[in-house]
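Consortium newsletter contribution from the modelling node. Members have asked for a concrete example of what our holo predictions look like. Here is one, prepared for the iron/sulfur cluster complex that several groups have been discussing at recent meetings.
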Amino acid sequence: MDRTGELMLEGKTFYIHTFGCQMNVNDSEHLASLLLAEGARPARSPEDSDFILVNTCAVREKSVLKLFSYLGRLKEQKERRGSVLACLGCVAQLHREQLLKKFPYLDLVAGPHQYAAVPLLLRNLQVERRVLTAWEKDWVDLPIVPEARESRVSAYVTIMEGCNNFCTFCVVPFVRGREKYRPLPSILQEVRELAGRGYLEVQLLGQNVNSYRDPDSGAGLPELLAAVAEVPGIEWVRFLTSHPRDFSPALIEAMAASPKVCRQLHLPLQSGSDRILKAMNRQYTRAEYLEIVERLQALMPDISLSTDLIVGFPGETEDDFEQTMEMLEKIRFTNIFSFRYSPRPRTAASRLKDDVPEETKIERLIRLQTRQKEIQLELNRRLIGRTIRVLCLGASKKGQLFAGRNEGLQVVNFRSEQDVSNRMVEVRVTGCGPYSLHGQLDG
Ligand code: SAM
Ligand code: SF4
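And here is the predicted structure:
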């Protein structure tokens, strides 16, 4: 503590544990930047830290339960060392009362619109335990220093916050608020800085990036993509998450027009049944989804598609589920993220009866994942013998074995005599499993 009664951050250590998606990872990088700017140092584990920050995810019940167990485990450690414990992000926004009751030793509870205020809130903790979940209406630009980024070669760049869609299963609009867009010049400035530091890949992030609009010029995602792809030094540009309803022909053309925009797209389908899509308020039909896929494949025949699928949404029959299975056959995704439906507080679907038995949800998930595994193996086998571009993200502990990913976002493990970490290399594919490709550095 200093003479003003504030906690000092300078010289102290901090540890951030992140639950959830890429947006949360990027938010944690911003948090780390803010703390580094105050003179604090990152620690390797919560045991070594004066400040423990837990950045949370509320999308599925499972991640909330994992968080509760993590916070429970931190009690003893907190008391032993006298560390400060903060719960931040979406669960803080959604369950603040429950958190305070269940974990009375929490020092700070702050929602996703409070990241910028976290250093100040931490400094003032000596005065009072703080709970802050107010919402900001406008975009707040947060600084990010390179040392806070997880990778030296691939960077997340957040372009928008929140979501206006209100899919009936989803808690995001209730925890992240309405859409706010980051000004295009600020995005470009960050991408130029990244390129200047040797970053080769940027991933533009938002919950619903297709509705991006520059607040000043009104430029949309197609214009933003074109501008980012022109930044010298950047080799690969990706964007996620896309919503099929807002996926315009102009965006498909913008992707096809630039070889720097990866031939890869994550396009959440959620269900193959029109009846369920309607109940989910997704605002597209399976035919419309297939039409987008056809257009994408017509202009970019080698495009890799991945998706999110939910099984066991209220009222999902065997026939509805079969229609989701059919979509796997028709589209042949390179990867899927599949989830059992779980009701989330405040959402419209939570008022429906969660009537698909848990055993049925598990059985459907297993069928889905088993078929998808076969499809992935078939797709991966076709790459054997080919030479592909790989962004090498690092070496395995044993050395000589490196890991990276290709343009299609598939994991590639390969052998190389020299250290090629953080470089774009050519790899000859010699084998594969359903979840990764194996190979040898070419040349
Ligand atoms: N914005 C993206 C979109 O439009 O699809 C995804 C956002 S959400 C963070 C990521 C995924 O979690 C969703 O695509 C969905 O498949 C899954 N998800 C969201 N709410 C869920 C729930 N209540 N139960 C199961 N899975 C859920
Ligand atoms: Fe949630 Fe739907 Fe918004 Fe995605 S588009 S964040 S699923 S409400």
